[in-house]
């Protein structure tokens, strides 16, 4: 297969899969950006959704998540206990009724 033919096949593949349209729209957005970012590659990654939090940020988020999950579990337990107490009051006869 001739190199030109392979190149054309690859171009059609990129076009058919939407890669060319996506990259074109991202490059147009970068071109139209009034204040050009310092790092164009980070801009492109962000537009593609590939830019994630920095490792230090990710660790801080993991710690916060663990803390919030623990708090949630405690609140769920407290909620269950309070519901049980409420059910006891609702099912027990009220004192002083019928007087």
UniProtKB/TrEMBL annotation:
Keywords: Coiled coil, Nucleus
Keyword Nucleus: yes
A GO CC term attached to the entry: nucleus
Regions annotated as coiled coil: 58-92
Superkingdom per UniProt: Eukaryota
BP terms from Gene Ontology: regulation of DNA-templated transcription
One of the record's GO molecular function terms: transcription coactivator activity
Chief site of localization: nucleus
Subcellular location: Nucleus
Family (UniProt): Belongs to the AMY1 family.
Protein name: MYC binding protein
Classification of source organism: Eukaryota, Metazoa, Chordata, Craniata, Vertebrata
């Amino acid at each position: 297969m001739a190199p030109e033919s392979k190149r054309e096949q690859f171009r059609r593949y990129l076009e058919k899969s939407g890669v060319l349209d996506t990259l074109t729209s991202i490059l147009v957005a970068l071109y139209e950006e009034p204040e050009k970012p310092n790092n164009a590659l980070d801009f492109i990654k962000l537009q593609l959704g590939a830019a994630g939090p920095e490792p230090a940020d990710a660790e801080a988020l993991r710690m916060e998540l663990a803390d919030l999950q623990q708090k949630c579990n405690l609140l769920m337990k407290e909620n269950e206990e309070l519901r049980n107490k409420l059910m006891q009051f609702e099912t027990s006869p009220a004192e002083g009724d019928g007087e």
